[in-house]
Structure formats: C-alpha cells, structure tokens
Amino acid sequence: MTFDDYQKQALTTVLSTGDDFKDLLHWVLGLTGEAGEVAEKLKKIIRDKDSVVSEEDRLELAKELGDVLWYVAVFAHQLGVPFDEIAQQNLDKLASRKDRGVLGGSGDNR
Q1: 60-71, pLDDT tens digit by residue?
Q2: Is pLDDT at 92 greater than 90 in this prediction?
Q3: Is the separation of the CB atoms in 97 and 110 below 8 Å?
Q4: Which residue stretches of 2-103 are H helix?
Q5: Contact 42, 61 (CB under 8 A)
Q6: What string of H, E and C letters represents the secondary structure of 82-105?
Q7: How far apart are CA 28 and CA 34, in angstroms?
Q8: pLDDT above 70 covers what percent of the chain?
Q9: Nearest-angstrom CA–CA distance, 10 and 76
Q10: pTM of the full predicted structure?
C-alpha cells in the first residue's frame, strides 16, 4: 500500500461539515489530540511501569499512531497535498540534513 492509497481509503471514513475552515480546524485538533494520546500513554508507562513497554502497551500505542496517521492523511488532502508527496518531501529533507551533518540541532530550515 502506498501513502496515497492509504489517503484515498482514509477519506472514505471522513465526516465533513462542508465548511473548509471548520474541517481544517477539526483535522488539526484531531491530529494534536491523537498525538497527545500517544504521549499520555507513554508518560504513564514511564510513571507506572518503570519505562517498560509491554506487548499490550505496544499494541495500544500502535492504535494511537494509526489515528495520528489518519488525521495526517485527511489534513493533507484538505490542503490539496498527496500523502506520497508529503512522505517523500520529509525523507528528502532528512536526507539533506544528514548529508550536511545537521540532523541534530534546531530550526526548521537547517
């Protein structure tokens, strides 16, 4: 499956308000909410389980990552950007940073 295939299938489960701005806000809030759920689950593993990730934890984290993926795919579509393109641009950016020795550090345009 390609990212574009995933995006097309994800779009079959979208509930839209018909208002582009509201939908865009919905996708961004959904994305941050799901990413927050990933962080919250990991926080509790650190706090309550001495940082040991069980098989059950791994499966639950994977479910949350799937939700993050769905929101990224739908948000990208709302912006008119194919998901394959986003994935390739990200890999190209990281490869360039690696080649220039700036994977570490800060700033979006390093």
Answers
A1: 999 999 999 999
A2: yes
A3: yes
A4: 3-10, 20-48, 55-79, 83-99
A5: yes
A6: CHHHHHHHHHHHHHHHHHCCCCCC
A7: 10
A8: 100
A9: 11
A10: 0.89
CATH fold of 3-99: Helix Hairpins (1.10.287)
Residue 108 banded pLDDT, cuts 50, 70, 90: confident
CA distance 74 to 79: 9
Q: What single-letter DSSP state applies at residue 108?
A: T
The rounded distance, in Å, linking the Cα atoms of 44 and 54 is 12
Q: What is the DSSP letter of 71?
A: H
Residue 84, C-beta contacts closer than 8 angstroms, at least 6 positions apart:
2, 3, 4
Distance of alpha carbon 92 from the chain centroid: 17
Please give the span between the terminal C-alpha atoms of the chain, in angstroms, as a whole number: 32
